[in-house]
């Protein structure tokens, strides 16, 4: 084939190929869609914040944001129903009042004396949890948080098992085994409820320890206590207390990795270090006081609990504002948020409005994130500090409402 014929055929073939390609593009264009430079094939996972209160960067968080709020102690919420003093229906009406008025949470007690445990939990566990279930469910409906104090009377548990107080230091004692088993049972039962805000061990263990001459639990056999106390094994020390806290807190963390864990303690006594290290009432230096504050709230406890009655002051302080400012400073140094677990007007003027306002102002002005007034719906304290929306101290509930408005504004500054 000569060169001219080959060039002719090659030209014809090129025209045909181009025509086919053009026809194909016009009839069935295959154009990739435009690419969004911000798009990605990676699926974005939005993390859901943990339930309740949790500690992050030394602050309380809730629902993904720093949380500030003032609640109430409702000491008898659970036990008064167990004992038959109140009904769930009556408690529901008081819970409704809290929810309707924006009171954010309550701190409440578990069983008190050994006899209270044996007559309820150990006798009829099903009925025991039926009451607790109903309270948790009602709190969920009313959007009221709960801080249950599981072992309110901290000295009752060894007496349940005819053991001495130092049984808290023995991980194989019946006392320690019960702390672990009840805590595990309780936490697993309620950890998925948004109503549960934090877990607390008991109430004011630190006020029972390291006292000169010894300090021993009450002897009230009719309420299930021992009939006598051993001068050594029942002498309450900070080692006994911290062992109990460690058993409780490590158990909580097995089942709930995020919620705040609280001791239930008051602030350390002004002589806490000297009482622990020499048995005398010499006033602690700030370094000594800070050492005891940290020891009383040791990891895995992740918050520091105190009281705000301001009847006595450590470190030469002399006013509620000074006290709150100093305890806030020390808690920040420890990297743990502060909880003023109880406060009212203080001492012999518990319901003095001016004194109460000083303590509320100290809490709000010093950015204390969490606090709880003592006490709501507790007729036993009607002569001093019981406040409800129905009695003559309803003005205290209004003071708490106003404080929460200010605290909510504080929270905005931390977002």
Structure description:
There is one protein chain. The protein is 41% helix and 12% strand. The protein has one domain: Glycosidases (TIM Barrel, Alpha-Beta Barrel), CATH 3.20.20.80. The protein has helices spanning 3-27, 79-82, 88-100, 114-119, 125-142, 156-160, 174-190, 238-255, 272-277, 286-296, 320-334, 353-365, 394-413, and strands at 54-56, 59-62, 65-66, 69-73, 105-109, 145-151, 198-202, 260-262, 304-307, 338-343, 370-374. Strands 8-7-6-5-4-11-10-9 form an eight-stranded parallel β-sheet. The chain has a three-stranded antiparallel β-sheet with strand order 1-2-3, with no helix packed on it. The chain has 415 residues and is α/β, with parallel strands linked by helices.
What structural keywords apply?
41% helix; alpha/beta; three-stranded antiparallel beta sheet; 13 helices; TIM Barrel
């Amino acid at each position: 084939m000569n060169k001219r014929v080959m060039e002719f055929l090659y030209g014809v073939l090129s025209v045909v190929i181009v025509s086919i390609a053009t026809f194909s593009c016009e009839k069935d264009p295959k154009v990739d869609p435009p690419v969004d430079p911000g798009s990605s094939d990676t699926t974005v996972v939005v993390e859901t914040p943990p339930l309740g209160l949790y500690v992050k960067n030394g602050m309380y968080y809730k629902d993904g944001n720093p949380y500030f709020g003032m609640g109430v102690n409702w000491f008898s919420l659970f036990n008064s129903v167990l004992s038959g003093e109140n009904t769930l229906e009556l408690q529901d009406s008081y819970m409704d009042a809290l929810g309707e008025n924006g009171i954010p949470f309550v701190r409440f007690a578990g069983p008190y004396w050994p006899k209270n445990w044996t007559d309820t939990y150990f006798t009829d566990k099903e009925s025991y949890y039926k009451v607790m279930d109903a309270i948790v469910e009602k709190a969920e409906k009313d959007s009221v948080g709960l801080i249950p104090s599981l072992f309110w009377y901290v000295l009752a548990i060894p007496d349940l098992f005819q053991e001495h107080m130092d049984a808290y230091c023995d991980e194989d004692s019946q006392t320690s085994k019960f702390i672990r088993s009840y805590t595990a049972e309780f936490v697993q039962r309620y950890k998925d409820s948004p109503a549960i805000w934090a877990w607390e061990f008991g109430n004011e263990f630190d006020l029972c320890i390291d006292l000169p001459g010894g300090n021993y639990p009450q002897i009230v056999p009719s309420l299930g206590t021992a009939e006598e106390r051993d001068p050594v094994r029942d002498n309450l020390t900070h080692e006994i207390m911290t062992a109990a806290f460690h058993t409780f807190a490590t158990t909580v963390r097995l089942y709930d990795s995020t919620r705040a864990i609280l001791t239930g303690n008051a602030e350390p006594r002004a002589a806490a270090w000297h009482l622990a290290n020499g048995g005398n009432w010499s006033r602690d230096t700030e370094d000594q006081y800070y050492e005891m504050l940290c020891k009383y709230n040791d990891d895995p406890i992740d918050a520091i609990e105190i009281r705000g009655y301001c009847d006595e002051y450590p470190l030469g302080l002399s006013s509620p504002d000074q006290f709150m400012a100093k305890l806030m400073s020390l808690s920040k140094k420890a990297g743990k948020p502060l909880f003023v677990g109880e406060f009212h007007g203080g001492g012999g003027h518990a319901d003095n409005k001016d004194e109460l306002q000083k303590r509320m102002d100290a809490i709000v002005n010093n950015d204390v994130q969490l606090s709880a007034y003592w006490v709501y719906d507790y007729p036993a304290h009607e002569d001093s500090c019981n406040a409800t929306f129905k009695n003559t101290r309803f003005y205290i509930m209004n003071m708490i409402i106003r404080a929460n408005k200010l605290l909510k504004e504080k929270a905005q500054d931390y977002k």
